[in-house]
Fold this sequence. Notes:
Layout: H1 2-10, H2 15-57, H3 65-79, E1 84-92, E2 118-120, E3 134-135, E4 143-153, E5 167-177, E6 191-193
Antiparallel strand pairs: 1-3, 1-4, 2-6, 4-5
Amino acid sequence: MRRFLTAIARDETGATIVEFALVLPVLALVLIGIFDVGFNMYAGAVLRGVMNEAGRNSTIEAATTGSIDKQVRDAVQDIVPGATVTFTRRAYSSFTDIKRAEDYTDVNGDGTCNNGEPFEDANTNGIYDTDRGIDGQGGARDAVLYTATMSYKRMFPLAGFAGVSNTYELSSATVLRNQPYDNTLSGAPPVGNCP
């Protein structure tokens, strides 16, 4: 009996399958993570590509906000069915105004618009803003910061591992130039006073 137990203890047949069983969960998790990152990168590339195309297509006169949104949504949902796509538009009178604060006179030199200091109300909303744009498509020849955000459930089951969320969100933006018709935002902005 002792020889039999010694022979079993020295037998290494089947050790490979046991080692593989120990390594398999880690290998599967790494592969799923690689596939998830790869898919998310691909979805992001598709979103950026379709946003660039939307920027080019917006220059034709027949382009409407609805047709551009539909083009982006359809292209994204071809790759990620069931993705939620939301859009924002912010109009500026020129490309150099994008994400720029309204101009003000810093009377007290503290670097902040306050204490009734005068400012140019570029978006005519009556208050000082750190972003001079207005929500929406704007008017003729305005530059429009067009942003699409897509949200979708992960394709691979990573939720629950190290705080990974079950949904993934990507955004892409481009600047469109409105056609030269209708009214523009340009012109002398009114002057207001800082709070």
